[in-house]
Write a structure and sequence with these properties.
The chain has 246 residues and is mainly beta. The chain has one domain: Porin (Beta Barrel), CATH 2.40.160.
């Protein structure tokens, strides 16, 4: 994981270094935007992510994002109850460079349509107790443990609205990427289960339904093994951020 974090930070800082070309901007131009990223709250209301964008030239800027990132606890069908996650924690960090279209946009950055490369890293670990009601009326318990990391690099397309010079709405609506997924998922307890068991399938379907990036990891049966599984795949970035410009 340390190598992935180092690679992610290296990509982010290389984007920033590449972008530092001095250009012509008004002396008292508002170059900075602090943003609240609402998107991670889709997964959990506990996820708080903040962003900072710095305009470096009339049609170019860089931004960095960082925050708390966890996956939620939830129920599976009526027969399973998942308890509140223990040891649930995680983080995310990302960076991008933005090329604002000169001919398309009327104003300087950070207003208007933009595109650019980005890199991101997400890590989360959680543990859940699952209470299973069996057909004979008895109860059983399972323990679900997982840690997951995702490193992505790609190209994004977005639009940022500037309202009354002070407030912004930043929409990233297309961001295809190549991603490296790494994770370990274990399921243990006082029930005998295998990969064809209905409880196994229910938990599997729930996780993949909420987090499609788990599909390849689960297909490789890391769900029932103790080893770490790593795979490559494709991702898609989308984001909604509310900002204050100064």
């Amino acid at each position: 994981m340390k190598r992935i974090i180092f690679l992610s930070l290296a990509v982010i800082f290389s984007l920033i270094s590449y972008s530092q070309n001095d250009t012509i901007l008004p002396e008292k131009y508002n170059r900075n935007v602090i943003k609240w990223n609402l998107t991670p709250m889709i997964w959990s209301s506990k996820n708080i992510n903040l962003s900072y964008e710095r305009v470096l030239k009339p049609n170019g800027s860089f931004s960095i994002n960082a925050g708390y990132f966890v996956l939620p606890s939830t129920g599976i069908y009526d027969s399973l109850k998942i308890g509140v996650a223990r040891n649930n924690w995680g983080f995310s960090v990302s960076g991008d460079y933005r090329f604002y279209f000169k001919k398309r946009n009327t104003n300087f950055a950070p207003d208007g349509l933009y595109w650019g490369p980005y890199s991101s890293f997400h890590y989360t670990a959680f543990e859940n107790n699952i209470e299973v009601s069996k057909s004979d009326g008895s109860l059983g318990n399972l323990n679900l443990r997982a840690n997951l990391s995702i490193f992505s690099a790609g190209v994004q397309l977005g639009y940022q609205f500037v309202i009354k010079e002070k407030f912004t709405i930043d929409l990233i609506f297309m961001g295809p990427s190549i991603s490296v997924y790494s994770g370990k998922i274990g399921l243990r307890g006082d029930l005998n289960i295998d990969e064809n068991n209905e409880y196994y399938q229910a938990i599997r379907d729930l996780l993949i339904g909420k987090f499609p990036f788990l599909d390849e990891l689960v297909d490789k049966r890391s769900f029932s093994k103790s080893g770490v599984s790593t795979s490559m795949g494709y991702g898609l970035r989308y984001m909604i951020q509310l900002g204050y410009r100064f």
